[in-house]
Structures are given as structure tokens and as C-alpha cells.
């Protein structure tokens, strides 16, 4: 009987065991269904536990070591001497993820794009280990940037040097160049920078300011002599413009700093301007009305600095200025969720803002420059707001997002001009940044063959918005204005960048919306209905005038050389 009952006993035990497992499974299922958040947390913990069990001894050792590596303290004001240990790769697209030592790299090797981790540095004085240049899998630097941990010591000390630059401007008696230490009536003026290609635009903008908008503000024209010499008599149209200006107050200022090239010329000009209160204008940026009123607006009087937004913001950016950008760690400041800045126009009281302008100068001219090396910003455009933000100095950012002016061809729209507004949301600036004025091609009369066939080489006369032929070398590009609805949230403000072939040239970059009625958050208006609809005709005429003056000077110089 004992042998007969043994299988039955085993069957009972198996039944009890199966019942216990089913009961445990039911309890677990009940927990999942009744407490979802707890279940999610449990699931995460289980996943981590399984991952931990699968990790190799080398990975576990790297995890243990990572616990000894700290974040550098914020707010440091003294430089520290660091030694680079190497790149430390991590999992989960987070610099705080589990270590992946098999993907580590020495300090001299470039870190691949899309790899999360950090640079491990050691303080040579204290021996402490720090996590620096912490990266996620997101594009935290420009795609063209080559990132190596070898530069990490300079990276982490950069904000200390920036602090020192700002502190110098806070010392008693510090003033910017051409700012008098004694109180006097502020001098307001417009600052522009020119190089050969932009002479027709500069000429046209100044002529519009003087003859169409009747603006009497004095104007500084900044230039680099070495650049202007590259094109024969390139600056001559502006000299003639100044000589014939009945209002006066237009002066030429030379940029003599060898580092002040390209975008840095703007910072140099503002920093060294003779005006106390500056309206900076890119040379291809024209106001639709006299901008003198800006100096009396409440926004400027309250803050002394007015900036304008760009097309891009953290939810839709082509410059990687999101929360994951290395920019914020570089500057030792928290992420700021706001529109990026467009610097085609800037309104600054230099007397009130010596410290941020000094910091801006440091950002621009410090070498080696991490903004440039890591492609953290595009040119100068965001450096202004960053200098003000870093020092917690108030400024006013215009709240209306940029509109886009462009041309409709069939059903395609190609935006070629950024449109900025005043504080009330009214159109104020038309920045022709994607399709410059040329004033016509300048030809070398010394080439006899070219001179003989000049008539045949003349470009076809472009069509204006009515389809009529005009005598202007530059075609009309402003037929419609595409604006963002005030009722729509910022997340819906998404400016597309595209080529609208075959309606437009393959070389023409377009901004806005390819099809005007495709996005309900934007609306279009015909330029003909605007109060400033005739402005482009003036610009095209003045640009042609600049081209003719330049050609006449080139011809005269060639004739003098031939007969001399």
C-alpha cells in the first residue's frame, strides 16, 4: 500500500505547487492592474535588475568607478588644473546611464555623434574626478564639430574666464570705448557693417532711410580695408552717397582688429561705436518706417536692450539649442526655454550695458573659441541674449515670431526675407537674408572681348509682380507675407527649410511653408495690400544706382590706366 500511494502523494504536491504559482501570478497581475504607477516602477526595477545580471565584470567595475566621479561644482570663480583621463561611454542615451567601457575612447580620439557619456577629468591639485561635457544621444553639438575630451579642461574652465571678463566691466571707472564717464545727453545712431558684396544692399537701405522714410539718425558704416580692397572701387558708391547726403551724419569707421572678421565684425562695431544708444542693422535689413521711435519705446527705456526672435526655438531648431546642448554646461547656466535670437537688428544702450557687452566681446574673441569649435551657436546671433542671460541682466525680447516675405509661383511659396515686428506686433523690418540685392553685375572694361559683347551679355530684364518688364537688375521677390497666428501655441510655429523646384531655382533656399494653405497656424497676405508695398521697388532702384556708380568708377579707372 505504501508503494501504491506514493505516486498519488507526488501528484498532490505538484498540484499544490502549481496552485501556489497560479496564486502568486494572480496576486502579481492584480498588483499590475490596481497600481499602474507602482507596476511601472517595478517593471523598471526588474529591467534594471536583469540588465545588471547580464553585465560583464568589466562593466560592473566601470559602474563602481563611475560612482566616484562627481559633477563639477557650479559657480566656480577660480581656474583649476585638470588632466584628461578619457571619454566614458554610457548606456540609455544618458550620461548617467550604465557604463559601457568597451566604447570608451582616449582623450585624443573624436567622440562619435549620437554617443552618450562624459569626459572624465582629474583635478591635478586635489585628485578629485569629475564628469565634464556630459552628452546624451541627441545632437548636443553641431554636426560638423569634432569633439574630443582633450579640449574638456578648457571647456570646463571657460565659464570661469567669462566670469573674470564680466567682473572687469563691473570695476569702478570701467567704460566702453567712446563712452564718456560723465553724464551727457545720449547720442542715438544706426550702426551698419559692409563688405564688397553687400555694398548695393547698404546703399539701398541708407537711401530708403534718408529719402523714403526721412530718418535723420546719424549712421556709422563699418568696414575692413583689406576686404574692400579685394574688389576695385567697391566702396565708391557709398562715398558718393555720403558726399550727396543733405542730412549729414554718415561716417565711415574702419575695423582694425585682425580677429574681427565675418560675424565678429558686428560685435566689434557695436562695442566700439561712437553712439551711446545703438540701433544695429544688417546691411540687407530695411525698416518699413522711420526706426527712430524705437529709442523712445517703453520696452527700451525700461531695459536698455531690445532683441528679436529667430525662426527657431527648442521644440524646432536647426542649431541644436535644445535642453541637451552642451552650451548650457559650457556657460554654467540652466537651460532657458525661449526663442533663439536673430541679430539682424539690435537695440542697445551701451552706457547701461557695459558688463554684458564686455562678456559678449569675450564670447566672440576668446581663442580657442568653444562656440566655434563645437558649433554650439551660429555666428553671433545668440551670443547677445546669452551674455545678458548669463549676467541676469534684463532685456526685452519681441514676442511676435518672425513672419516670412516671399514669392508665390503657381502653388509654391518661397520665403526669402525674414520679417520682424515691433513690440505691438506690427511689421517693422524686412531682412532680405536669403536673396541679396546685387545691383547688377560689374564687368571689367579692360577685357576688350567682354566689352565688345557687353550688350549681348546683359541679363534678361526680370519681371515684376505684375508681369511687366522693368529696368532693374534685381527681380521682385516680395509678393506675399506669411505670418503666424497669434492664437496658435509656440509648438505649432515651425518654419520649414526647403527647395521649391521646379518653381524656383535649385540654388534658392526657401523658408516658410511650401504651400500657403497647408498649415492652419499660418496665414498669407498679398504684399500689394500692405502700406509699404512700394518699398521693394525703391530698394531695387537704389541697388541698381549703386551698381551703376560702381561700374562708372571701374570704367573711369580703367580708362585712366589705359590712357595714362
Give your account of this protein's structure.
This protein has 564 residues and is α+β, with helices and mostly antiparallel strands. The chain folds into three domains: 63-151, no CATH class; 188-397, Spore Coat Polysaccharide Biosynthesis Protein SpsA, Chain A, CATH 3.90.550; 403-552, no CATH class. It has 16 helices and 18 strands. It has helices at residues 2-34, 36-54, 57-66, 152-169, 199-212, 225-228, 236-244, 264-272, 298-303, 327-331, 354-365, 370-373, 383-390, 448-452, 454-457, 535-563; strands at residues 82-89, 117-123, 129-135, 188-193, 219-223, 250-254, 277-281, 285-287, 305-309, 341-349, 396-397, 403-409, 412-421, 427-431, 480-484, 496-498, 510-512, 522-526. The strands form four sheets. A seven-stranded mixed β-sheet has the order 6-5-4-7-10-9-11. α8 (264-272) packs antiparallel against α11. Residues 1-5 and 460-469 have low confidence and may be disordered.
CATH class of the largest domain: Alpha Beta
Runs in which pLDDT lies below 50 for 5 or more consecutive residues are 1-5, 460-469
Q: Report the span from N to C terminus.
A: 136 Å
- Spatial sequence of strands, sheet with the most strands: 6-5-4-7-10-9-11
Shape, per Cα inertia axes: globular
- How many whole angstroms does the radius of gyration measure? 31 Å
Beta-strand content estimate: 15-25%
Protein name: Nucleotide-diphospho-sugar transferase
InterPro entries: Alpha_mannosyltransferase (IPR022751)
Membrane topology: Single-pass membrane protein; Single-pass type II membrane protein
Organism: Phytophthora pseudosyringae
